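Q: Structure for this?
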Amino acid sequence: MFNHRSSVSSDVAYEYFTNSFACGVSQGSAPGEQVFISYGRRSNDQLLLYYGFVESDNPDDQCEVLLIIPSSFLPQLARFAD
Amino acid sequence: MDPPAAKFHRGVLPPWRHSATRPLMAVSNADFMAWAAEAGVVTAPGLEVADCGGYRGVKATVPTEAGKPLVTVPAKQTLVTTTLARTPPSGFSEPGWEVPQEAWQSSPWYVRLALLLLKEKSLGDASPMALWLKALPAPSDFSDLPMYWSPEHREALQHEPLGDAADSQAADYRAALAALQSKSAGSSGSGGLSAVSPADFEWAVHVVRSRAFSGPYEGSGYVERVATAGFASVLAVGAVASGAAEVSQVVNGLLAVLLTTVLRDFLLSSQASLTRYVLCPCVIFTHAHSPYGCGTCFCVLVWYIHSLRWRGSCVVIELHNFCSTSLGLLSPLAFRHVRLCN
């Protein structure tokens, strides 16, 4: 029933003795506020692929890129990497 | 290092940003909540399903407490598979729905859950989850996902890895259905699995991948635990009634059985290799309607380099808080996409 917000800390837990699943959040909500949960740590790529939306200021957004550089430039970059 | 100033780049918006508002759900909020209550779903006091600016969400009408469950769903109202599930559930021995053990074992978790969902849906109104199934998004609600985007919109996104991932997604789903149907080709009866179209299957997988949760699995089901406890209790009563053992011995034995069961489950659930995947009603609503505009996807927002490391002869730069579609702007700098860092 709940919409996603990355900044919310939430959890879906299996309740062993009652054989049920409980969803809770670590912070309360004030009257009139929308109650959000987090669907998990998802990058915007994952959110778009599986949910069809992206989130602005998503703290879990990341991607990896490959930089093709001339070999003569490698020593200088190696110093930067250190 | 101070983050560079944010730069913005506007691109072509995907089609749904121009589309008319669609209905929030095929089932009214009141009917849905009535079904949930009848199904044993317990929600925190003061929560109500509401229109949250054009999309459906949950609002608090009274202050909600941190740490308290917002919603509790009985396991019998969920669809579950685990990494230990080596054989398909009993419903998959019915005519038309026979899934060989080998096919079940080789299917990834989301395909198993999709099969469970399709099987449940095939029951129609006879399913105890019928109203929740009706409340799920329609296939057309998923038409906005990248795997259905036109080449023009893919191009406008300027993010090749996402397009590649969407292509892989589509290919995986087609292959999974084809494998299942070929392995079940000898099954008796008509309809059932053989009648599942690629569109139906994709719908089910989309529902699963946008709504399922995973977590540790303790290695035994609730029914097995109750059966073990019941059997031990019957033996205990029989031993006392027949005079075969003293009450104190029987109580000790019974406690040992119960404690061993709980301890075994606790230890097994702490192993990361055992996982339970659950499709749980009443937790996630989202279906390609978002409070967050996809326009943000077309902004450049590079804050800082998260990490820099060597891979073979290449330098891999991982960027944090990086709007995915902005990668296109890096093309002139000779960046080339590798894969999603997910």
